[in-house]
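Reopening: structure tokens for the 1,3-dihydroxyacetonephosphate complex, inputs below.
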Amino acid sequence: MTGFAHRIDCVEVAAPILRLCWEMGWNEANGGNFSWRLDAEEFDADMRHLLSEAMPRDIVLQNPQPELDGDYFLVTGAGQFFRRATSHPDDVFGIVRIVDEGRVCRTVWGFGGGGRPTSELATHLTAHAVRKERSEGRERVVLHCHIPEFIALGFLLPLSSDVLTRALWQMMPECFLVFPDGIRVVPPMCPGSAEIARASAEALAESRVISWAHHGIFASEESPDSVFALVETVEKASGIYRKLLSAGGPKYELDLGILEELAKKLGASLVAPPNIPKARAGS
Ligand code: 13P
Ligand code: ZN
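Re-run output (same inputs, fresh job):
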């Protein structure tokens, strides 16, 4: 119970989670952004009356998203602070609808004071299109945070998806269960660019969690709660690994047989067979 109430259900659920992200130290100033693909039928039935007084504002998408045509999204605004999510929700959030066969993003509520969607909108929409298809519609929420331990690892490890995934899987067996499809690394690129949206789409076809090297995490999950848990687990494992590196590197390894066993248990639910490292000779 947070005691936070809002007339729009999805804002009531999302705002306290964004505020918690700030309390965790993940989203300084306007760092990070969030989007949630809403159930269009539910939204139309319950919330549409709230949109009637809104002045629609359109953005023509450089990269059209026909798979998202008709979908509504709750999105954070460009330059908005997660810290203010519960105190100023009508400024921090907006609701957009993708229309005109995926060519136009229409603001139908929010972004008070004439704001606009996050500068990373292109990547969020591409991520939703890719993950909607990969997860058969289950995944609905995308969260980008500047998580410090994870960012630090980008300066300590080579920019390799395999190296990062293996390092974090081995920190706790739970990691393998929370992100069995591993982490894909996107090399450093200009934030908010079409280039980072394109590279992220390729990476997200393989995994629901990606590292924007030297910048932060970009992750997709089913709900605000589950995407928070995913980021929390990645950041905790990164903190453990960074401590180990500070102490001269791990001296022993997790029993990799445990990961093999977990992979068998997950079985058909895995999108792709995990690339579990082989134990080193003599370890
Ligand atoms: P926005 O304020 O436009 O969402 O940008 C924040 C950010 O983290 C860019 O990567
Ligand atoms: Zn960022």
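The pocket of 1,3-dihydroxyacetonephosphate (ligand 1) is lined by residues 30-33, 76, 78-79, 118-120, 144, 191 (CB under 6 Å). Residues 120-283 form a domain with the L-fuculose-1-phosphate Aldolase fold (CATH 3.40.225.10). Marking as resolved unless the reporter disagrees.
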